[in-house]
Amino acid sequence: MTVQDVLSPFTAWKNLFRDPVTVRDPLTERPGAARYRGFHKNDVAECIGCGTCEAICQNAAIDMVPVDGIETKEGDSGLRPQIDYGRCCWCALCVDVCMTGSLTMSNEYTWIDSDPDAFRFVPGVDHKSWDDAELGYHRPDGHRLTPPERIVMREMDPERRIGNFEEIVDGYSVEEARAEAERCVACGLCVATCPAHMSIPDYIATIREGDYEAGLKLLYETNPFSQVCGRVCTHKCETVCAVHHEGDPIAIRWLKRHITDQVDRDRYVDIIGRPAGETGHKVAVVGAGPAGLTAAFDLARMGHAVTVFEARKHAGGMTRYGIPEYRLPYDALDADVDVIRAMGVDIKCDTPIGDKVTMTGLEKDFDTVLVAIGLHLGRSTRIPGSDHPKVAKAVDLLRAITDGETIDVPKTAVVIGGGNVAMDIARSLARLQKQIHGEVGMTVTALEDFSHFLADPEEVKESFEEGIEIFDARGPREVLVDEVGNVTGLKTWKVVSIFDDKGRFAPTYDEGDERIHVGTMVIEAIGQAADVALLGEALTEKLEWNRGRITVDADGRTSEPWLWAAGDCVNGPDVVHAVADGHRVAASMDAVLKAKELS
Amino acid sequence: MKDLTDRLGTLFSLGDITEKRDDLAFVSVAPDLLRAVITHLRDVEGFTHLVLLTAVDWIEGGQFQLTYLVHNRTRARDIGLRVFIDREEATMAGIHDLWPTAATYQRELKEMFGIDFPGSPRIDEEFILEGWTDIPPYRRDFDTKKYAEETYFHRPGRETFDPATHMKDKLYPGEAS
Amino acid sequence: MALFELDRSQYPEAKADGSLDIDLASGKYLKLWQGPQHPGITGNMSVELTVCGDEVVEGRTHVGYLHRGFEKLMERRTFIQCFPIVCRICVPEPDFNEYCYAAAVEELAGLEVPERAHWIRTLILEMGRINSYMMYLGGQAGSFGMGVIGQWATYVRDLMLDRFEEMTGARIYHMFILPGGVRDGLPEGFAVRMEETLREVERALKDINDVMYCNAVFKKRTVGVGVITPEMIEPYGVTGPNARAAGVAKDVRKDQPYLVYPELDFEPVTGSVSDIYTRADVRRRDVHVSIDLIRQILQKMPKDGPVMTRLPNVLNWKIPEGETYIRGECSRGEYGYYLVTDGSGYPRRVNVRGPSYTHAMALLEKLIVNANISDVAGLMVSLHTYPPEIER
Fold first, then answer.
1. Closest Cα in chain A to B166
2. Which of A353, A371, A372, A559 could pair with A292 in a Cys bridge, judged by C-beta atoms 3.0 to 4.6 Å apart?
3. Contact C207/A12, CB-based, under 8 Å?
4. Which residues numbered 571-590 in A keep a CB inside 8 Å of some CB on B?
């Protein structure tokens, strides 16, 4: 203890001469920092109402609520997050996890109101003074709570795959599938977009749990073509995947395939479950494609006796005769068909409607009939020379290849068309060219330019890898034939526009940009039509039609009370859509049959 | 840590040994051996600092795991002794005479898990909870959510919608699945 | 220096568990409650005193006024959902919870944290340490009637909170260190503003030194009072400045270096006799160490590079079975998290080991005996206690 210790404390008096350090008007002079986590903002136009913010909130402060002016549509639930600031702890996990980046925070932290309920509102909808605040917390770059990159699917190299028809895609291993399944945020936005409304988040969850049998059961509840769709589905679900907004969508299709790959095929029927007891009703289905067989599967499980009439040698419809084997191996399709057979469905192949079996006969012998005949007639461009024997339709060639018929494989060929069918025939012929001639000589000419291409991007990418030339925005003008009558190529003009200002199909060309594509064969792949002749004149007369397609109601029922129609022949080509159609028809027929019992 | 667990192994019959890091290992010991092992660690091996004493409820196996974490300040390393005791008759001998501060841990374990340490000072005195009548709350079978729902009430007016269900109701209400 | 040992022969014999048979009806004794509300302690805690005259015969610590059951709450939250609540276990120095929890999760989940995140975490912990000491200084001075120190300390703490705000987006509960790294890098110009703040801290420390430490009254009331003898260190689990003041040069930052402490140059601050004064002095000097560490960090840390590792989808995050213990040196001593996982998406058990658990319970109850009533508040504060880390 010194004198110093007595005097030193008096130095505090020097503060008398200091300016105060307090902020005089903190409400206006003291805005929150640039990163401040204040009241939320939500860009409701970007928000898709996926509810991951609600899922991650550890305080249960967020509710997903419908709001006026925001419609429920594909890829947007129409719900928006409502935040209860009596519970919010400002941790911003909701901002960090937000799948679209729409949810952010302002730097506003002062707000006084005498009504406690005012502190529960929908950011971006219930307008607040801080809605336009530039400062405030935004998820920093690189800070992600969900992995944006898809687990890469291994596939065969172009060099190895071009000489054969083996399946290109390897399928995920168990570890890869689990890692991909873990990326799913289980928002369920995809379910509405899937035509069959498959329970996607639920079956993805079974992959995370490793419970494949539960997964398989879920798949077959909504889709008897799960093995097929696991490979060739148009996967519209992936386009609305919440992860897609700031990353790669979940590989829903490949995950579905993974479940079907993991379960021993002998176990399928036991897992899916046996049909119900017989009802005594008889149903006929014309066409053993996805729509017809899905309806048959459902109806058989309900206990009805179903007979399917198929003109071709094998069941499967377009999935067999349209889709090449390298995309969908026949054994996968056969396995799905076997499951359907195991449900008691009698599939009669090689039984076309016409001579022995007629629609009139079916009407008499069965309680109800479904027509699901697909689109098997190729359309023609009708350009000069298109009636030449060396000008073929893609669907005809694909069928011939599937049935193992020998076809005259040209060294060079030109395909007209830019859809998946064009790619299918080009890639199938390329494989045959490689096998027979040792090299690929395929050219594809499409009306659309690459930014509006109809075929899936991976089809285009893989076609290029396989050495196929693709010319976009080319309009076919003439099939060139030499003096001795052989096809030598195709003449095209550059496409200026495809549709007129009313949106009608009316292509215009730049005649100055002409090109000759060399080929001794030309293949038209510009669309298909249904072969409705089998209905017979009388029935065709009775039915209502709309631009070449049978008119049906929402349940697939035609104007004839005993007849339903479904699948590509009424909706246009899409496997999973056909499956969904089959379900609808089955439900509708079942209701009608049950009503008959009661009356 | 291997040297230490090896030495311990020659003196005592040890259970599972988990080398977690270079400076941290967990060793399972039988309840009646705990006192001998921890005294040895304290007096011979220099683990003089009792870091913590706590419990883990393995309700599925009907056991409590008691974890005694001791620290050697000189060598800067830790060893965690795991003792598994029966969940139904949860009783364990105290170590409050080795570390007076252990009495606090034991008092908390009695209150929060219902694990008794007979003879531990003020073991039955309330520590954190006052007037608690339910089962010891840190046991796994005490459901905090259920307790909160029964004890408190939500402010009315909240309702939430599941996106997938809402979309079904709006976009395809009649259809199956 | 006279140690506070008075004649206890006039009081009843202690029983086996240390408690006394006090006959209140005799009129000789008085029960007195210190707390649960009083300015000396951050949070709520009370000491039930039995006094004879102005001398404490027995003291019993009571906690539970702030019990929120964090450890149990975490058992029903996913690993990412635990992250926002851990900081709330300790108001004045929340970041230690964030760090210990994140490090425990990272170890059990096998996550590699980017280098720059380690630097930022260290920076945050040292900033938090200064703030925690500032709150302590205010409380310690206040317990002896020096209210102005608390105002100065709070001002400096507020400046540091400004730095926290611009870096983390929040002032008190930063929620910035999360499993896998930290949320973001440092804002533009941060080092410059930090240097200004550090100068203010130094200026305040000088004033506080002049008015509080070099003060006859403060010395008179604190030197030789509430001594923690070296023999008490181990039985009572004493760590941090409380132990270092007794000459035990143990500092987790040095002994089991974590984060980037191996790359920083510092020495643990120690004293010779752990009385109230020396403990206060150790803490004052520790602030200077922290200031120096922050300067070193800002100078040495990498200027760019990632601050966050790639996390799995946190909504489906499961961590394999395991258990671990992570410790660090917080302003009050050893802070640690014992985390047990069972392979599910939720922690099986989390146990938070706060230094106050031993300091404010067994140790305080020991030290308080024979103290003068007027010294009780100063003694409590001198152990630098935060009750929420006792009851959690």
1. A77
2. A372
3. yes
4. 583-584, 587
pLDDT above 90: residue C131: yes
Site from B144, B166, B168, B169 to mutate, A interface, most A CB atoms within 10 angstroms: B166
- Look at B2 and C287; give whichever has higher pLDDT: C287
CATH superfamily of this structure's domain C70-391: Cytochrome-c3 Hydrogenase, chain B (1.10.645.10)
Encoded tokens for A254:
């490949």
Got the DSSP string for A235-257? -HHHHT-GGGGGSPPP-HHHHHH
Does B176 fall in a domain?
no
Q: Give the span between the Cα atoms of A327 and A231, in whole angstroms.
A: 7
> What CATH number does the domain located at A378-528 have?
3.50.50.60
Residue B15 domain-assigned (yes or no) = yes
Sheet strands side by side (includes A563-565): A346-348, A305-309, A282-286, A368-371, A563-565
Question: CA-nearest residue of chain B to C325?
Answer: B24
pLDDT higher than 50, residue C2: no
Domain ranges of chain A: 27-132, 158-270, 277-376+531-598, 378-528
Cβ(A425)–Cβ(A523) below 8 Å:
yes
Put simply, whether the predicted model's pTM sits higher than 0.90 gets the answer no
Q: What's the structural domain count of chain B?
A: 1
Architecture of domain A27-132: 2-Layer Sandwich (3.30)
Instruction: Decide if domain A277-376+531-598 falls under CATH 3.50.50.60.
Output: yes
For chain B, the residue count is: 177
First to last CA, chain A: 111
CA distance C64 to chain B (A): 4
What pLDDT is attached to residue C1? 35
d(CA A41, CA A47): 11
Pairwise CA distance, residues C304 & C299, whole Å: 13
What ipTM goes with this model? 0.91
Task: Write the residue in A4, A56, A184 that is nearest to C214 by C-beta.
Answer: A4
Domain-embedded: residue B85:
yes
Q: How confident is the model over A253-268, as a mean pLDDT?
A: 90
B22 pLDDT higher than 80: yes
Among A58, A62, A207, the residue to mutate for chain C (most C Cβ within 10 A): A58
Out of B155, B158, B161, the one facing A66 most closely (by C-beta) is: B161
The verdict on a CB contact (< 8 Å) between C166 and A58 is no
B58 → chain C, closest CA residue: C348
User: Comparing C142 with B81, which gets the higher pLDDT?
Assistant: B81
Chain B residues closer than 8 Å to C107 by CB: 20-21
Do B164 and A198 count as a contact with CB atoms less than 8 A apart?
no
Q: Residue type for A580, please?
A: A
Tell me which residues of chain A have a C-beta less than 8 Å from any C-beta of chain C. 1, 4-6, 8-9, 11-12, 15, 21, 32-37, 52, 55-56, 58-59, 89-93, 96-97, 105, 137, 140, 142-147, 182-186, 208
At residue C42, the pLDDT reads 63
| pLDDT at site C3 | 43
Across the interface, whether the CB atoms of A37 and C170 are under 8 A apart is answered: yes
Q: Which fold has domain A158-270?
A: Fumarate Reductase Iron-sulfur Protein; Chain B, domain 2 (1.10.1060)
Asked if B51 and B38 touch (Cβ cutoff 8 Å), the reply is: no
Average pLDDT over residues C49-70: 86
- The per-residue pLDDT for range A528-538, each reduced to its tens digit, is 888 888 888 88
pLDDT digits (tens, 9 = 90+) for B81-139: 999 999 998 999 999 989 988 999 999 999 999 999 998 888 888 888 888 888 999 99
Nearest to C98 by CA among C61, C60, C127: C127
Domains A27-132 and A277-376+531-598 share a fold: no
Q: Give A401 or C10, the one with higher predicted confidence.
A: A401
Q: What amino acid occupies position A432?
A: L
User: What is the 3-state secondary structure of A529-587?
Assistant: ECCHHHHCHHHHHHCCEECCEECCCCCCECCCCCEEECCHHHHCCCHHHHHHHHHHHHH
CB-CB: which of B158, B162, B166 is closest to A78?
A: B166
